[in-house]
Amino acid sequence: MSLVVDARGRDLRSVSMELKEAVAKGPVLIREAAHLHGLVAGFKSGEVIIGGDSGDYLGVLNDGATIRVKKNAGRYLADNMTRGTVIVEGEAGYGVGAYCYGGTVVVKGNAGDFTAVMNKGASIIVKGNVGDEVATYMLAGDLVIVGNAGKNLGNYLIRGNIYVGGEWESLGHNTLLEEMSLADLAKLRGYLDEYGIQADPTSFRKIVRLSEKPFYK
Amino acid sequence: MPPVNGTFCVTVMSDRCINARMPGKCATCVEVCPYDVYAMDSTGHVHVQNYNACVGCRICSEFCPEDAIRINPAESEILVRSPWTFTQVEEIHHKAQTGQYMLRGFGAMGYRPAFDNITVVPSQIASPAPRDSYREECNLEVVIGEDTCENPVRLKYPLIFPAMSYGALSREARMALAIATAQTGISSNTGEGGLLKDETWLIKGYENEERTLKRWEPGGSLVVQWSTGRWGVSADYVRAGDAVEIKIGQGAKPGMGGHLLGAKVTEEIAAIRGIPVGSDALSPCRYYDVQDLEDMKRMVAFIRDVTDYRVPILFKLGPSRPYEDVKACVEAGADAISIDGLVGGTGASPAIVTQGVGIPTVALIPPAVQALKDLGVHRKVKLFILGGMRNGLDAYKAMAMGADGVGFGAAAEIAMGCRACMACATGRCVYGITAQDPELRARLHPEEAGDRLANFIRATAEEIKILTMLSGHDDIGDLSEEDLRATELNVAAITGLKLIGYEKRLPWWENGRRS
Fold first, then answer.
1. Where does the pLDDT of residue B2 fall: very low under 50, low under 70, confident under 90, or very high at 90 and above?
2. Do A41 and B279 make contact, defined as CB atoms within 8 angstroms?
3. How far is B218 from B212, CA to CA, in rounded Å?
4. What SS3 class is residue B303?
């Protein structure tokens, strides 16, 4: 049984203060929070369920909490997360998992442009399609796209892996297609099984960086 | 014969010159000089026959097989060879040879409208009497976020060490800044390179992590920077600061992100930033998670929430449109704003950007102050001016023009021992200030450098106090434009200060800049 916080008509500070106290006691369900941006910021533990849609910057700086969104998430989901898990049952907007150092983000629907931009270590899994400029300047971590990707995928990729089950419109600079290894297949199967995503790991392709130093020679 | 130029000194070092040792064996300079500066006589001796004909092309020097010739300008090359100065010619050669543009640190150099064209007006009989700086007190404190957060930042002096990251600076230099900050009660800023753990206790005056051994009083404030690269940023990092600064731009490269070249990305720096050793850390020029001012307001809101509404939020601007940019920062929720002038910039940058992009420091202040006044927050939202600030005189002038304080970046590096060789970006700083090589770093002792920095800050604060009191005040908050005069027409036009002799503002300033 979750504790319930009703966010209707309230501002970030008042909801956040109540949430910080409630989350220490057990899982918390937040209702009517779509107007709040930057909710569940910097939590180190606990479980928070957003009953409907969320606003932007949900779970920013998350450092250990588990956050579930029952419907759709706004922009910049799990921005700069370092630990924890964020799962969205619906779709997510621009910049999913931007600047993350760690943790896991799962989007069951589609995700927007600039997903995984400057990802530095998180696992970001999108069951649907992603937009353009995804994984720009990604520095570490895994990005799994079960569906299709837009233009300039992996532009100036420095490190980390991009796994794509569908098609892409174009690849960005400094990208290289690499054979999937057995370790890649096992890792991918683990991600898909853990989050209940039906897909065949052997149908994915893997994109890695071309050079570690693509800017100044 | 070409027209005589007469502005270069030709020196032939006879101990190196082949012809001096073996007349007739070499006359390369005679052959290559297009203006017959050199001649060989019938005995085979080469001599300079016409010093005045040298135009400073340095072809002779380049071709001399023994590197025996030096050509130095007798007058400024800017006057006699501009635009084709030696530096410009060499830069073009570099690009032609390598296909790479020039990179350097240390900000714009050369003449710009500057504080030097402003003079301080002392008090005499017609104005409030001067105060005695030897026997009377003067308030130099600046408080940031007094009305907006639970733990405002209190600066003992109106001075800050602005953002200079670990990576741009060595670990030892960062520690020196922390020690000096603790000794002087001001603030130091992480820049965007993440946080060195040691800084958190050193800056409070403790010499151990357990914070049981207090060594330096009164202790200072740590500003953690939130930037477009988000290097080393986490919830813990944000909470470690006494204030959080949101970086929009910087003087070295406004409109571009931070540059840390691979030569300086060591294992430790790579670990903090989460990038491969030796790779270039090039921050984005804008936030990937901000698309408009509404997003920026939301960013301020969640940073306040993560820090439990305890600490001030600062903004750092490059030198662009100070009136509009300062207004936007205030709308976004800033408690203080730092603006870096064109002259500012300790960081690596494309040379053309550091040299030629942005508004000179002195010209930023009037519109920035006007924006704060128009919003009714002047002296509430604090304004700090950065960019080429050298001493208490510059600081006083900036504050009399309406700023609340100033920052010392390049001057802080110089106080640690830097000689402004502009090689910061290469990692080869021989004083260990911007180096990452362990041997070079070992040349900088954090405590010695910290003491030097603290001495510099205390001396500068004393200069501010002297100037404040001789102009009839006992509080830096009372300084005003009436305490200054422009000594030169351009600066009077740019700043709105009264012009010496004329004793009035220039006509288009009479009703205020934005009337």
1. very low
2. no
3. 15
4. helix
Domain count of chain A? 1
C-alpha to C-alpha distance for B146 and B437, rounded to whole angstroms = 42
Give the closest residue to B188 by CA, choosing from B159, B215, B214.
B159
Q: Residue B387 to residues A13, B353, B417, B418: CA-CA distances in angstroms?
A: 37, 15, 19, 17
A155 to chain B, closest Cα gap in Å: 13
Examine residue A49 and state whether it is found in any structural domain, yes or no: no
Question: For residue A45, is it within any domain?
Answer: no
Dmax (CA) for chain A in angstroms is 58
- Please state which of the ranges B53-62, B88-97, B269-278 shows the lowest mean pLDDT: B269-278
Residues 179-218 of B with CB under 8 A from A: none
Question: Is B334:B375 a contact under the CB 8 Å cutoff?
Answer: no
Indicate whether A64 belongs to any domain: no
* CATH-assigned architecture of domain B8-100: 2-Layer Sandwich (3.30)
| Most B CBs within 10 Å, among A61, A101, A159, to test the B interface | A61
**Contact in structure between B497 and B149 (CB atoms under 8 Å):** no
- Residue keyed to tokens 């930037």: B227
Compute the distance between CA of residue B462 and CA of residue B454 in angstroms, rounded to an integer. 12
In terms of residue numbers, what domain contains A149?
Answer: 91-209
- Is it true that B8-100 and B115-470+478-495 share their CATH fold? no
What pLDDT was estimated at residue B1? 46
**DSSP assignments along B433-467, one per residue:** SS--SHHHHTT--HHHHHHHHHHHHHHHHHHHHHH
Q: Do B301 and A94 touch (CB under 8 A)?
A: no
pLDDT of B50 over the 90 cut: no
Q: How far apart are CA B288 and CA A100, in angstroms?
A: 12
CA-CA distance, A193 to A173, in Å (whole number)?
32
Give the pLDDT confidence score for residue B130 in this predicted structure.
Answer: 92
Picking from A19, A54, A58, A76 by the largest number of B CB atoms within 10 A of its own CB, the best residue to mutate is A76
Q: What is the pLDDT of residue B247?
A: 97
- Find the residue in B nearest to A120 (Cα): B274
CB contact under 8 A, B280 and A216: yes
Measuring CA to CA, which residue among A76, A62, A77, A71 is closest to residue A23? A62
Q: pLDDT by residue (tens digit) across A190-211?
A: 999 999 999 999 999 999 999 8
Q: Do B434 and B105 meet the contact criterion of CB atoms below 8 Å apart?
A: yes
Enumerate the domain spans of chain B: 8-100, 115-470+478-495
Query: What local confidence, expressed as pLDDT, does residue B512 receive?
Result: 65
CATH class of B115-470+478-495: alpha beta
